[in-house]
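RECORD TYPE: inverse folding
INPUT: structure tokens
STRUCTURE:
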């Protein structure tokens, strides 16, 4: 099994995206220990920037024709990564609920990246992609349920 430089760039991007998404899920717990919100933001922003850099290198290394479904999924995940970056910027600007959407799109990007790699038939088995998708979908449902419950409680408070 030959691992090309482009594969390494892709794996580094995937690992950094997973790190940043996971990091944001435990951000409040980390904040209790560090008491330094600026440090947590910097770690997240630097890791996300590095992930974006490796995504660009990965796409540049493997840019080729013909475009298959797996390659199209890779391009879609790269586009979603840009969207995640923009929503992260919106969160920094304090737009309401942007963190929820930012986190959900991050998780979706991870799922697409793994399916892209498995579909391309390179180095990631299909069963691992399936497990990753189940985990991503489960976390997304739990976070959506948590967010929805906060919205419903907020609406009930406004009624009274």
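DESIGNED SEQUENCE:
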């Amino acid at each position: 099994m030959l691992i090309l430089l482009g594969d390494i760039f892709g794996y580094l991007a995937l690992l950094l995206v997973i790190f940043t998404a996971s990091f944001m899920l435990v951000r409040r717990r980390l904040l209790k220990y560090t008491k330094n919100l600026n440090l947590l933001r910097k770690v997240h922003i630097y890791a996300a920037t590095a992930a974006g850099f490796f995504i660009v290198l990965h796409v540049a290394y493997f840019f080729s024709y013909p475009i298959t479904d797996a390659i199209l999924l890779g391009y879609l995940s790269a586009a979603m990564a840009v969207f995640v970056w923009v929503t992260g910027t919106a969160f920094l600007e304090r737009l309401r609920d942007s963190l929820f959407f930012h986190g959900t799109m991050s998780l979706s990007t991870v799922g697409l990246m793994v399916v892209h790699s498995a579909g391309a038939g390179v180095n990631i088995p299909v069963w691992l992609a399936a497990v990753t998708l189940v985990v991503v979908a489960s976390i997304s449902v739990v976070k959506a349920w948590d967010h929805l419950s906060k919205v419903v409680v907020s609406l009930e408070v406004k009624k009274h």
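NOTES: The chain has one domain: 5-159.
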